[in-house]
Design brief:
Layout (H helix, E strand, L loop, with lengths): L2 E3 L4 H11 L13 E6 L7 E4 L3 E7 L7 H10 L17 H4 L3 E2 H8 L6 E8 L13 E5 L4 E2 L3 E3 L11 E6 L15 E6 L7 E4 L2 E4 L4 E3 L12 E8 L20 H5 L5 E7 L16 H4 L1 E5 L5 E4 L5 E3 L5 E8 L19 E8 L1 H4 L2 E6 L39 E4 L1 E2 L6 E6 L16 E9 L5 E6 L5 E4 L24 E2 L6 E13 L5 E8 L6 E2 L7 E2 L5 H7 L20 E10 L2 E8 L5 E3 L12 E5 L2 E4 L13 E9 L3
Parallel strand pairs: 4-5, 15-24
Antiparallel strand pairs: 1-26, 2-25, 3-6, 4-6, 6-10, 7-8, 7-11, 9-10, 11-14, 12-13, 15-16, 16-21, 17-18, 17-22, 19-20, 20-21, 22-23, 25-28, 26-27, 27-28, 29-35, 30-34, 30-39, 31-35, 32-33, 35-36, 37-38, 38-39
Length: about 650
């Protein structure tokens, strides 16, 4: 390997090592600030797919506590596929070898959410998701009847390794198995990312970005032609950076990398990224030796001819460029596991094709095809039929189905990333790192290189934020100097209010936190007050049951700043010096909306988020992004750069 660790990597190594020793069986244990050498499949932040996965497989009552025969009967009763395995030959086969359904008790134990025959939607992003920003409330699923559903759960499982985490799996009630056009058919048609107070973020090559507002159509897996497919094929030099996951949850990911299976033959890795789990029948797993059954790589010689690589273990000559050998598949399960019907792989959205050969030949790889018919096998997502959909193998009564459909012939171009430019790392080793309010980038002083790829030059840097938190990133961190924007903003946009309505009402049940920067000579203080709606209506403390709107001018301003409406908890009045950035955090009641107000320390003016309330009738706050706003502190609009105060915030339920 060409990876060098410097002494500055000690905190990174300690953080990853400690996380691997985490024995929690909870899916929430994956929501840690770790993205380690993770692939970027497309430089544009987006959802690639968010297709309906399967119906009714999560939380099967009565399954998992009895014999294989009794569980098979439960599976039939609840219409989930069951695999035929000869128990005499494989008496210790795990339940996942028999079915892709999850029993009720295991589902609750892992997710701490009750789900009864729930459905799934794997949401496939173009780049890693920041796990700490993932919540079920980030996703709005629109169904064909016009209703909009919030998932019950959003989980990183089974995409749990540190260099994965580009896919989030949603669980909830999303539809049934009826074909579109049939009476009562119900199915998702789109998935949208919404602002839930902690905006969902992706990790780009230059740092985190919000993905709020992204939307993508959702296809139906019970309709022919909508089987799982490849959505990315990314070629890198092999590295095991980022391999692994917490213990228990990551049991099948232990020692499953290309080097674990093939040693020094693992020279290059073609990571295949899928729209859903790939399985030969919906239950069984792909095997390390299965390359020739499913895939054809093609490389282009100097005449432009495409040369198919159909077999593993065979050197293919690519014109004058040299040879390529497909070594086998990896990222399945632990090296040395027998390839038999009891084999259980990790069933995530990734497969690694391990390659060796001459670099000049490897660089000629053009595309990968999945024929899915003839001598090549199709794949199914985990809602597929299993190997015994008719019950003929054991003379059983089969579940009625229908089951999700098979893949069809498709080809995808290979992205050459041998220089490692489309790999990203962001790891926090302690307290949350301060962010630049405008850009959202972590703020830090560069301490030096921690991890260096001596062949490509790709580097992971070590930083220290203003509060002494150590973090690691593959991109440049921001400075603590306040952002200075160009003036003359022509239009303003209504800001996101601080919304705790999804959090149970009660005293100090919400935590409002973030960062604030100032690029202005006037001293000012940012405070927050309770509003009744997005129009800024407030309770009038001088009249019983009365309310005031921003158009009520001075009366409104007095009511908003009254003790009855102004938040007064510790830390809720925020200020910083000119040119500086500081973090803030304070508690507030759940079940409410809060609006900001910027008050000049000299007492001359207070500027509200609603222009009609301001003494000059102008807008003094504008939205720069999800939960990001800027303020203009001069009467009459000043230079309209709105960087006099810039605020980034998140809203979360207070820890109990």
């Amino acid at each position: 390997m060409s990876i060098t660790f410097t002494p500055l990597a000690s905190n990174l190594i300690a953080t990853i090592t400690a996380n691997k020793l985490n024995t929690s069986s909870k899916s929430a244990s994956l929501f840690t600030p770790i993205n380690y050498s993770a692939d970027i499949f497309d430089p544009t932040p987006r959802m690639i797919t968010a297709n309906y996965g399967f119906e009714g497989y999560i939380g099967i009552p009565g399954m998992g506590t009895g014999t294989a025969a009794s569980n098979q009967e439960v599976a039939r009763q609840y219409n989930v596929a069951w695999q035929y395995i000869d128990e005499n030959l494989y008496p210790n086969a795990g339940q996942r070898a028999y079915t892709s359904a999850l029993d009720y008790d295991t589902s609750y134990s892992s997710n701490e959410v009750y789900m009864d025959r729930a459905d799934t939607i794997p949401v496939v992003f173009s780049m890693p998701v920041l796990p700490t920003t993932v919540n079920a409330t980030d996703f709005a699923v629109t169904l064909n009847d016009g209703s909009v559903v919030t998932p019950v759960l959003a989980s990183m499982l089974p995409n749990l390794e540190y260099n994965e985490r580009q896919t989030v799996v949603l669980d909830g009630e999303f539809g049934n198995r009826l074909q579109p056009g049939q009476p009562d058919a119900l199915y998702p048609i789109s998935v949208t990312i919404v602002n839930d107070g902690t905006p969902l973020q992706l990790l780009t090559t230059t740092g985190p970005v919000s993905i709020v507002g992204a939307t993508v159509a959702s296809s139906n897996p019970y309709v022919a032609g909508n089987g799982p497919r490849l959505v990315g094929a990314k070629l890198n030099r092999f590295s095991d950076l980022g391999e692994g996951a917490p213990a228990i949850l990551g049991m099948v990911t232990i020692r499953n990398s290309g080097s674990d299976l093939y040693g020094s033959d693992a020279q290059y890795r073609l990571r295949l990224y899928t729209s859903a789990g790939f399985s030969p029948d919906g239950i069984d797993g792909l095997l390390p030796s299965d390359y020739a059954n499913y895939f054809i790589l093609r490389a282009r010689d100097e005449q432009g001819n495409l040369i198919p690589l159909t077999l593993a273990g065979t050197p293919y000559t690519i014109g004058t460029f040299g040879t390529i050998t497909v070594v086998g598949l990896a990222d399945l399960t632990t090296a040395g596991t027998p390839e038999d019907p009891a084999y259980i792989e990790d069933h995530d959205n990734y497969f690694d094709v391990i390659l060796k050969g001459d670099q000049s030949a490897i660089e000629r790889l053009a595309d990968v095809r999945m024929p899915s018919s003839g001598s090549y096998k199709a794949v199914y997502n985990p809602g597929g039929p299993g190997n015994n959909p008719t019950g003929s193998l054991d003379n059983s009564t089969p579940p009625p189905g229908p089951f999700t459909v098979a893949s069809t012939d498709h080809t995808i171009a290979i992205t050459n990333d041998l220089n490692g430019s489309l790999v990203a790392t962001y790891v926090e080793t302690g307290a949350p790192v301060m962010r630049d309010p405008f850009s959202g980038q972590p703020i830090g002083t560069l301490l030096g290189a921690a991890v260096i790829d001596t062949v490509t030059g790709a580097t992971i840097w070590c930083y220290q934020d203003p509060n002494n938190a150590i973090f690691y990133a593959s991109f440049a961190a921001a400075s603590a100097v306040a952002t200075n924007l160009a003036g003359g903003l022509q239009t303003t946009t209504a800001i996101d209010l601080l919304n705790t309505t999804s959090i149970g009402a009660g005293t100090n049940t919400a935590t409002l936190s973030g960062s604030i920067s100032r690029e202005a000579s006037l001293d000012s203080t940012l405070r927050f007050y309770t509003v009744l709606d997005s129009a800024g209506t407030v309770v009038d403390p001088l009249t019983s049951g009365g309310t005031l709107r921003p158009t009520d001018g001075a009366r409104y301003r007095a009511a908003a700043l009254s003790s009855a409406n102004l938040v007064s908890t510790t830390g809720s009045s925020i200020a910083t010096s000119n040119g500086a950035t500081v973090a803030f955090s304070f508690s507030a009641d759940g079940g409410k909306l809060y609006a900001p107000v910027l008050s000049l320390v000299n007492g001359s003016d207070s500027w509200f988020a609603f222009g009609a309330a301001n003494s000059d009738g102008l807008e003094h706050l504008t939205r720069f992004g999800a939960n990001v706003f800027g303020c203009e502190d001069l009467k009459g609009g000043g230079d309209r750069d709105f960087d006099d105060l810039i605020v980034r915030f998140s809203v979360a339920q207070s820890a109990t």
